[in-house]
Amino acid sequence: MSCSFLLGDRSVVVVLPSVFAGLGLGLSLIVAIGAQNLFVLRQGIRREHLLAVVAVCALSDAILIVLGVSGVGLVLQAVPWLLTVVRWAGAAFLVGYGVLAARRALRPSGETLRVDGGAASAPSPRAGGTAVRTRPARTTLAAALATCLALTWLNPHVYLDTVFLLSSVASTHGDDRWAFALGACVASVLWFTSLGFGARWLGRWLDTPRAWRILDAVIAVVMFAIAISLVLPH
Q1: Which of 93, 143, 215, 227 sees the fewest Cβ atoms within 10 Å?
Q2: Which residues of the chain have pLDDT under 70?
């Protein structure tokens, strides 16, 4: 959507405070360790379908922000059972994703990240010339996007933070609420772009099977923790 649609006839200078307020709140809500962020980070480190994943995350956030500011959040509050369904579905998905990560951590395949993007490296001298490093098996674009969409839309925290909380704050800005929404959308684009493409420099520390086991173990723990938090009494 264009800035003219969001801002209408309002002067850019007049709405800037609302834009920055939306930017600040958007970043404060999204910059946290969560299932979606960990997935973007992992895709960034692996350099797999990163642009598509970042685009899906940012676009999903923009859609949720627009829905919230347009008043859909009030409608959802009238059907609380819907969030319950999303909460349990999200918890089940996170448990499944966590099990896969835990399995990779407990039963490593010896895969590492090749920062130079080349083919399989030569046998390691330290391993007696017998161990061969291989590139991680690539995830298909469809699988990556499906996982990204599930981690985004099956996460009830997304609705609580983006649709309810952010839209509630936006309503306090009156006629400038769409400028606030614009700032929040910009925050999502900046964060996911920085997280995904900035993760590449971590590759130099993840060029060993042990490093990938640690990363997958962290991912598994976080996924299980979030899943438990979703189903605990609220």
Answers
A1: 143
A2: 1-14, 32-33, 72-77, 83, 108-137, 203-207, 233-234
